[in-house]
UniProtKB/TrEMBL annotation:
<protein>
    <submittedName>
        <fullName>TIGR02234 family membrane protein</fullName>
    </submittedName>
</protein>
<feature type="transmembrane region" description="Helical">
    <location>
        <begin position="144"/>
        <end position="164"/>
    </location>
</feature>
<feature type="transmembrane region" description="Helical">
    <location>
        <begin position="25"/>
        <end position="43"/>
    </location>
</feature>
<dbReference type="InterPro" id="IPR019051">
    <property type="entry name" value="Trp_biosyn_TM_oprn/chp"/>
</dbReference>
<feature type="transmembrane region" description="Helical">
    <location>
        <begin position="70"/>
        <end position="89"/>
    </location>
</feature>
<keyword id="KW-0812">Transmembrane</keyword>
<feature type="transmembrane region" description="Helical">
    <location>
        <begin position="96"/>
        <end position="116"/>
    </location>
</feature>
<dbReference type="InterPro" id="IPR011746">
    <property type="entry name" value="Trp_synth-assoc_CHP"/>
</dbReference>
<feature type="compositionally biased region" description="Basic and acidic residues">
    <location>
        <begin position="176"/>
        <end position="212"/>
    </location>
</feature>
<dbReference type="Pfam" id="PF09534">
    <property type="entry name" value="Trp_oprn_chp"/>
</dbReference>
<feature type="region of interest" description="Disordered">
    <location>
        <begin position="175"/>
        <end position="212"/>
    </location>
</feature>
<keyword id="KW-1133">Transmembrane helix</keyword>
<keyword id="KW-0472">Membrane</keyword>
Length: 212
């Protein structure tokens, strides 16, 4: 008895990379947008708090993420711009933009983790409040928002890695928006020599109305 093995459908094989490209594109867009939103939100929240001694009493101090470091918010904006720019370039340009996207996420992670226990911003506020340049913050405590910013940076980093791995399968901006791309020119319509207005229009267009 002979068995017949069904040949794989070439259409299904060709559609597999397209499906994986669409899935990776959707995940990268989700990770990039969500990561930037989280990093920006976390930068506006309270990262640290403490007290300063003023006139024999205690004065409460707080520091937002933007007071501690402006790196996460700035790199989140860079990451968003890179996420959009991925679709405007191709080949080597897309690889470069995807690398920038990944580096933006990595920079956010490093900056947030390094600043999670930083007291410089509150020390400066304690010196201003007490009028003593050598004063430092007391009862220092930190919130979890720096780590939330690091999570946002990690999502942007993953989006960049997806763009580096699967970006070649993603769609690009239409060719008509690319510099140097010429639109196909329509062939000139024959000019009727018995209609002077058509002759003048042909001359205005730089065409030879005689058709020679």
């Amino acid at each position: 008895m002979e068995y017949v093995t069904a040949a794989p459908d070439p259409r299904s094989e060709a559609a597999a990379p397209a499906r994986s490209g669409r899935r990776s594109l959707a995940v990268a867009l989700l990770f990039g947008a969500l990561g930037a939103a989280v990093a920006l939100l976390a930068s506006r929240q309270r990262w640290a708090e403490g007290t300063a001694t003023v006139a024999g009493g205690t004065f409460p101090l707080t520091a937002k993420g933007s007071d501690v470091t402006g790196v996460p918010a700035a790199l989140a904006i860079v990451g968003l711009a890179a996420l959009v720019a991925v679709f405007a370039v191709r080949r080597a340009g897309r690889i470069a933009v995807a690398a920038l996207l990944a580096l933006s996420g990595a920079g956010i992670v490093v900056a947030a983790l390094v600043s999670a226990s930083d007291s410089t911003a509150l020390d400066e506020k304690a010196a201003q409040a007490s009028g003593d340049t050598s004063a430092t913050v007391a009862a220092l405590s930190h919130t979890g928002w720096p780590y939330a910013a690091a999570v946002g940076g990690l999502l942007i980093l993953l989006a960049g890695l997806l763009a580096l791995r699967f970006g070649g399968r993603w769609p690009a901006m239409s060719g008509r928006y690319e510099r140097g791309t010429d639109r196909p020119r329509r062939s000139a319509r024959p000019v009727d020599p018995e209609r002077p207005e058509e002759i003048w229009k042909a001359l205005d267009r730089g065409e030879d109305p005689t058709g020679v």
